[in-house]
Amino acid sequence: MRPIWKGAISFGLVNIPVSLYPGTKAAKRIDFDMLREKDLSKIRYKRVAEADGHEVPYEQIVKGYEYEKGNYVVVTKDDFEKVALKSNQTVDIKEFVDLADIDPRFFDEPYIMAPEKGGAKAYALLREALAHTGKAGIAKVVLRPPREKLAVVKPLGDLLVLETMHFADELREPSEVDVPKTDIGRKELDMATSLVKTMADKWKPEKYHDEYREALMNLIEEKIKAGGKAAPGAKTKAPSATRIVDLVSVLEQSLKEAQGGSSKKTKAGGHKRRRAA
Question: Residue 18: inside a domain, yes or no?
Answer without folding.
Answer: yes
